[in-house]
Write a structure and sequence with these properties.
Four copies of one chain form a homotetramer.
Chain A lengths: L4 E2 L4 E5 L6 E7 L9 H11 L17 E2 L3 E2 L2 E2 L4 E6 L14 E2 L5 H8 L15 H17 L3 E9 L2 E2 L8 H9 L8 H16 L6 E8 L13 H10 L4 E6 L2 H4 L4 H4 L23 E2 L2 E2 L4 E7 L8 E6 L4 E5 L9 H23 L5
Antiparallel strand pairs in A: 1-2, 2-3, 3-7, 4-7, 5-6, 8-16, 9-10, 9-11, 11-15, 12-15, 13-14, 16-17
Helix pairs in contact in A: 1-3, 1-9, 3-9, 6-9
Pathway (chains A, B, C, D): Metabolic intermediate biosynthesis; chorismate biosynthesis; chorismate from D-erythrose 4-phosphate and phosphoenolpyruvate: step 7/7
Pfam families (chains A, B, C, D): Chorismate_synt
Catalytic activity (chains A, B, C, D): 5-O-(1-carboxyvinyl)-3-phosphoshikimate = chorismate + phosphate
Chain lengths: 365, 365, 365, 365
């Protein structure tokens, strides 16, 4: 199956290149009867759009979404929802210098190797601009999940070697407010300031830096995830790894947990009070997922992003003929991708969860 | 789609419970004309089977594979290859005590929550015994990849806090020999001894411990991987995360790479000598994959396994009614899963790569 | 995706060749908690098995099904149900003469052309023996549908130019009894006798003849079918056309309906009495399906089978080198396929409906 | 999987309602490097568009296609091709009378039953307007097939009881010219005149009539089709049955072939001259497909369309409350759908064949 679709029952297909006419998405499988809040979709896109602050790319795109189908009188009808985001600021000529030269650590070479042809304007299809389409669809997934009592929250927990402490609050509204109060989208204000300062200095160096985003899902019922291959964390992992620049995924105790003993790592269940439904454990090394199925505890995972490849330094590289060439970054790029990626992580998580909510409906009499 | 299939064109579907009649797999999409070496398949299964050494479970299973279809006169015919592995040592009564009690950090509770019914004998479908079916199919994937010039090598690089140094050799035959010379399957003999000693002491404590497996794919041509969702590393990540006990996946520079600057992380391409096909870079932080597509360099990734949940200690837990209960591990379990998981990691990697070799055939005129 | 799977959520994958070790099926997605009546599954297989009567092939196969997984204490667990049917009467030597010669109107040539290799024993994978696996899985689908109040009935309505009149009864138990009272499986006793006599005379001529099977689905709720491609009748059509020897499918008014005017063809809805749920129309040219979605009326369709290609006459043909050759039918074959195909039609219909029952659960809030 | 996608490797997803903003399609999997002739795409759409002649609906839509992505410098790049067709003549108010009344033999009732909500303007998603998106994608499939030496030709062979004789010509250019020389799209001029006259009289009666379309595929290599479920004719059948108003599909000898004996029906292969590749048979009852795989002969099939449900007569029906109601057709509708459906049949056939060309690449070493 061609690779531009994601999900089984709540399924998206995205299209579009960085400097083409438009990018967009078809969402097939959104249940009928959902109230579609267009302002919410736009506000999600606004969190991803370029030009938000001094630590993001200065490309100017309003990223205004148009809904073409699937909504009638404000509600989803069960038919495909198509959304379009026109490209506005297509300074393709910035990329004329890339026609024949392969930018280091970009996808230029591999697209040529794979397809024998490449839209070289701004990375073409390999541009992270494609993720705007995911955010639009993810916003609808969030609306569906909200209706099911499920909430998702992500924020930046590392930039370079600067790490945020564990969150003290457990309240998503409060966390969202803390996060949106700063331009790096870390819910810890002190760390946020440190991160911003650091990114700004990196930017001034013409350089870039990586980072990490942590995500928690609250209110997820027990039972989501389809063993043995479509385990909930396996689908979350694939979703995250499909985001541009992501190099690592871990859930629950993650890589740190590999150093523990079973007697330390096991999460001990608590007896339920009468009529309580909720399964609870003392610790949550499982990250809310056992055997690939949600257990009702918070789902937690972390995503690692490498530094953006486009830097404003001279770099050695090769051209399409394999000869030595030199390149200097032009165009408008992010010094650090994580502030804008927070909403992408949330969107992909929402898409995975919405899909598994629907898939879970089919499993018992 | 139900969750027991993996892959698109080179596609497996597995079945079977830990203590049922048999486990097995159908491989649909293996190209016709491949010579099927049954001894090789069995030798792969032998690397995963229980009872191999003092640091694995003492359950006795010969894991003898039977091929039921899809092979004619020693070659694949392009029709589905069904393989069966009978369960021999089904001491189901060892699990009688689990009928009503949820073992901590096992999937018992979530299977009940999801399906309303559960085969409680030895974990049923959630048992890692299912991975034998993956190894059998993965062996055929390896034979196909070998025919395409692609080799896969994994070994144990961490047990608890004991980490192996970087490999000095680049030769897969040599590495395989080093790895198979010890029971923990680490290609560094000194570290291997340390690991074995540690696992044995953990086992004597009635406890378990986690670890890490690193994998390299050599000889992979440029061009494998299907953007934007079925990126090669995204499919590898999902494959690995679908293995029992895996909590983390990273490729190339991984989580460490998130701390670097772009100027440090970028892999600088080397000019090609005349008639050279191979794309080469000075460093390989990309782990052989750019924009989700292989670039021809070694593909490298790492997988983290949590400690096995079954320990020989008394643990507090709850029963199906939600009441407090106590459990003590019985049955026969591994103190550390990574020695037997090496071949599972290789098998899943082989399945992903075989699938992408086939998918890549469809992309250009 | 490789072609040996059918269905999305209630999904089967079959394997096996006519003269291999065994054929079988994995059913993935059967809801948990269904009581699995093994005797019923076997009784369905008995209706398809060879050697039932003088008008079927004399190959001797007991077609005894073994269940390998997915059932615990008599109920489905939500995990894959694997079923195995060993091949017993493998007179492969009957087929030695076929190694190099392409039998007219068989798949011999195309398998060689497609795969470059072919299991020539009895048609290998192209043999209708594969359909036994479908019948086994279809039996479980029927059990699930029965639980949902949905019943399926098919019978032979034409052999050659002999056509059965429209059914007078509307009662499935009665119809089943009428059908099973004769060896051709036509619910009209007089026509059945005529058909049997005709098939027997054709058999004595060493020849074969085609026929038609009609099917009705009762108790299907409104709402099954997923526009715009997975319309209920489109999936039924694909299911039927995937059965060996089928050359045509029509539903409701079918090809005859193309000759009508809209004013004749339209089905006029009847006002509902208070508290009645059921949508009813005066006529049912729609065959119970509008816009690809069931409307609650009886679903009706018809399937056309060509005559079996193996005849006991000398026939001109070619060998693998393209040279003229002569062939005379050997082996044991059916003079007319429809009596044994009735239960295959029902099985495939059941698989489609079970799949759509599950898919329909995902469409609204 | 949600039902608005078709194909595996050459895969389309359509969206849009009759009276929404736009309809469109994403084609994912078109091989890179294909020259995209926009004029050809538009000319195909022109053959389907409304208002072409006195025997089609008078709705005015230019059906001008816009390509949003996937094409660079005139060639496909291997990335998704998104195409948009704005809706221009949205006289939604014509449909105000349908809000609460279920039109007989339309999908109004079942959409309400399935989704609990319905875009009642002009049939919404159930409108045949959706097929314009298929025609746009099918045009690209045709360009790809042309590149592979495969041609498709369909024409009207029956309107009501008027049947066209068998074609005398075997030349597709000539046939196309004959077909496009008349407004009913029958390649036999005398029959075409009769059909046109008949449709016009039916139209004057305010009534509608059904018909049949026959299709031939020339130049198809042996080997396309994936047993045992994705047989070439099974996928063609599903494709055709997914088109609005289709009630029947048959290939090769079809339903008529069920009346023959094997000795009459078998297609006898002809010895090949030296160096000839092509497999040939004296007759072609197989319709170019054996065992679900193309054999290199012409592929032939026939599709039956019921009469359009909207008639200009008063009809009894019910409203959403189940009460008796009366309806009289308004809006602008076709008296007979087949003249405009010829290019839809060709488009769907092209999509199936393109998909199977790509799938066939994966089957052997």
């Amino acid at each position: 199956m061609a690779g531009n679709s994601f999900g089984q029952l709540f399924r998206i297909t995205t299209f579009g290149e960085s400097h083409g006419t438009a990018i967009g998405v078809i969402l097939d499988g959104c249940p009928a009867g959902l109230t579609i809040d267009l302002d919410f979709i736009q506000s999600e896109l606004d969190k991803r759009k370029p030009g938000q602050s001094k630590i993001t790319t200065q490309r100017k795109e309003s990223d205004t979404v148009q809904i073409l189908s699937g909504i009638f009188e404000g509600k989803s009808t069960g038919t495909p929802i198509a959304m379009l985001i026109p490209n506005e600021d297509q300074r393709s000529k910035d990329y004329g210098h890339n026609v024949d030269v392969y930018r280091p650590s970009h996808a230029d070479y591999v697209y040529d190797a794979k397809y024998g042809i490449r839209d070289h304007r701004g990375g073409g299809r390999s541009s992270a601009r494609e993720t705007a389409a995911r955010v639009a669809a993810g916003a609808i997934a969030k609306l569906f999940l909200k209706h099911q009592g499920i909430d998702i929250f992500a924020h930046v927990t590392a930039v370079g070697k600067i790490n945020a402490p564990n969150l003290e609050s457990n309240d998503i509204s409060e966390l969202l407010e803390l996060r949106e109060a700063n331009i790096v989208r870390c819910a810890d204000p002190a760390t946020a300031n440190e991160m911003i300062e650091f990114i700004d200095s990196v930017r001034k160096d013409g350089d870039t830096v990586g980072g990490k985003i942590s995500c928690v899902v609250k209110g997820c019922p027990a039972g989501l995830g389809e063993p043995v291959f479509d385990k909930l964390h396996a689908d979350l992992g694939k979703a995250m790894l499909s985001i541009n620049a992501v190099h690592g995924f871990e859930y629950g105790s993650g890589f740190d947990g590999t150093e523990l003993r079973g007697s330390e790592h096991n999460d001990i269940p608590l007896p339920k009070a009468k009529e309580e439904q909720q399964f609870k454990t003392i610790s949550n090394h499982a990250g809310g997922i056992l055997g690939g199925i949600s257990n009702g505890m918070d789902i937690t995972f972390k995503v690692g992003f490498k530094p953006v490849a486009t830097i404003m330094h001279n770099q050695q590289t090769i051209n399409a003929a394999g000869e030595a060439a030199e390149i200097k970054g032009k165009g408008r790029h992010d010094p650090c991708v994580v502030p804008r990626a927070v909403v992408i992580v949330e969107a992909m998580a929402a898409l995975v969860l919405a899909d598994h909510v629907l898939r879970n409906r089919a499993v018992k009499l």
